[in-house]
Specification:
Number of strands: 4
Structural class: alpha/beta
Low-confidence stretches: none
Oligomer: single chain
Strand content: 15-25%
Radius of gyration: 14 Å
Strand order of the largest sheet: 2-1-3-4
Shape: globular
Number of domains: 1
CATH architecture: 3-Layer(aba) Sandwich
Largest sheet: 4 strands, parallel
CATH topology: Rossmann fold
Order of helices and strands: EHEHHEHEHH
Distance between the termini: 13 Å
Length: 153
């Protein structure tokens, strides 16, 4: 099983949405040899997904109410096939603190735009910002699934 690990700051907004969206698309397309997981670079373990993340995912009939945040560690990073940061800054921090995983690390936007860029952080924003963030992530996730289907990931 190839694990794709999404990493954001707190693992309560962006990365849980990315994890859920990718797992949803993989299941929908009956792709069984990949799975998504998420973690945070600066977080506390066992925090729930943010209220607005839960709301905007429910709009797509995707339930993330059981999500609990987890902080990155060497074990999680080692298990990952790809490590996908939601911002350039997080990608650079990961490369600096975990150089042994450098080749696995990129940003989510790289797969959509072929360049490193940030998925904006909706933390403490209104539900519309979360919705925009979800759609931004979803576009990238759909591109990831295309690459997986084409065996280019």
């Amino acid at each position: 099983m190839k694990k794709i690990l999404f990493i954001c700051s707190g693992n309560t907004c962006r990365s849980p949405m990315a994890e859920a969206l990718l797992n949803y698309e993989l299941e929908k397309d009956n792709i069984k040899d990949y799975e998504a997981e998420s973690a945070g670079i600066h977080c506390f373990n066992e925090m729930p997904a943010s209220e607005n993340s839960i709301k905007v995912m429910q709009e797509l009939d995707i339930d993330i109410t059981d999500h609990k945040s987890k902080k990155i560690n060497t074990i999680i990073l080692n298990e990952a096939y790809k490590i996908i940061a939601l911002t350039q800054s997080i990608a650079e921090q990961l490369k600096r603190y975990y150089p042994e995983f450098r080749e696995k690390i990129t940003t989510l936007k790289f797969y959509l735009e072929n360049r490193d860029d940030d998925v904006r952080d909706p933390f403490m924003s209104d539900v519309n910002e979360y919705r925009c963030c979800r759609e931004e992530i979803y576009k990238c996730v759909k591109k990831l699934v295309e690459l997986i289907k084409a065996q280019k990931l």
